[in-house]
Design brief:
CATH superfamily: P-loop containing nucleotide triphosphate hydrolases
Structural class: alpha/beta
Strand order of the largest sheet: 3-4-2-5-1-6-7-8
Number of domains: 1
Strand content: 5-15%
Helix content: 40-55%
Length: 339
């Protein structure tokens, strides 16, 4: 046979040389494409690009509210994500151009820890604001890692404030009066004040409800989280009737959502059925990164900006900001935007 046999080494080398020549002449393009992929499409590169977006480096700012919004984050049940929600939404807003103040009203001081703010007993704190009569400027400190974010820390002294407030004049409205000069903290004034409440319905929480116009209720996607909700809503109605007529539940956020369980989906459906548009479309998933961040004195927004928890809190902040700007279509997961 005159054809090329499989075992002919000379023929094989000719074919391989031809193939090599063909590859050497044309695929500079293929090498460029390969290089582009390695630079832009690797998991590390994708995560880095996402982190840069979340950190607000592309000028994607959130709309300022028509007027300052004062929001109390409350739920008397512990472990539902009150502090986590308060600090991460505050951080997301500040990173996107808003001026935000977090008031840590929980004697445990977890919000202060998450924001990297000292809160040992000698530090001027929210206790001095409520009991000692100090001004907001005396106790509010800027958060070093996030521009545009301030915190009023809580110290262990606050644990006795419930008792000390009982004998004071206008005990339910002392925080309201103290926050009146929030505009002095920043040029142009503060856009948002978020108050992180303790897991109780005592005088500290009452002060927060009297001071605020809105209540944000984080609800864990588990059955027990719904049990105390009725009592919280009744207390909010009592404060509204007797102390703060403008108070209303403006936002409900579903937290610790585990898509693997049917219970989480059922709880989410029940909450949406009862509260309608008050519930944000964004749901916060269970996330190890969200839980880890406070141990490093950070929010998840700076600890791991590309994590699912950070992205969801950013979307929640978008929705809240869009509502404050009068936009009926909230900004959660904006159309055409991909991370």
């Amino acid at each position: 046979m005159g054809g090329v046999t499989v075992g002919d080494p000379s023929a094989g080398s000719d074919v391989s040389r031809e193939t090599t020549r063909g590859q050497s002449t044309s695929p500079d393009v293929s090498r460029e494409t390969k290089d582009e992929r390695s630079d832009d499409d690797t998991p590390i590169a994708t995560a880095a690009a996402t982190a840069v977006r979340v950190m607000g480096r592309f000028g994607d700012t959130l709309p300022r509210p028509v007027r300052r919004r004062l929001i109390t984050v409350a739920n008397q049940k512990g472990g539902v994500g009150k502090t986590t929600t308060a600090v991460n939404i505050a951080a997301a807003m500040a990173m996107r151009g808003l001026r935000v103040l977090v008031v840590d009203l929980d004697p445990q001081g977890n919000a202060s820890t998450a924001l990297g703010v000292d809160h040992h007993s000698e530090i001027p704190s929210v206790y001095d604001l409520l009991v000692e009569g100090k001004t907001l400027g005396d106790v509010a400190v800027p958060v070093t890692e996030i521009s545009g974010l301030w915190c009023v820390p809580a110290t262990i002294d606050l644990a006795g404030a419930e008792i000390e407030l009982v004998s004071l004049v206008a005990r339910e409205s002392r925080l309201q009066r103290a926050l009146a000069d929030a505009a002095s903290l920043a040029d142009g004034g503060i856009d948002y004040i978020l108050i992180d409440c303790p897991p109780s319905l005592g005088l500290l929480t009452v002060n927060a409800l009297v001071a605020a116009e809105e209540v944000l209720i984080p609800i864990q996607c588990e059955y027990y989280a719904l049990e105390g909700l009725g009592q919280l809503l009744r207390n909010i109605e009592l404060v509204k009737s007797h102390l703060n007529p403008g108070l209303h539940v403006s936002t409900i956020l579903l937290t610790m959502y585990d898509a693997r369980t049917r219970l989480a989906s059922q709880v989410a459906d029940d909450v949406r059925e009862h509260f309608g548009e008050t519930v944000l479309r964004t749901v916060i998933p269970r996330s190890v990164r969200v839980s880890e961040a406070p141990s490093y004195g950070q929010t998840v927004m700076t600890y791991d900006p590309a994590s699912p928890g950070a992205l969801c809190y950013l979307d929640a902040a978008r929705e809240i900001a869009a509502r404050g700007a009068g936009d009926t279509v909230a900004g959660s997961a904006q159309e055409g935007e991909s991370w």
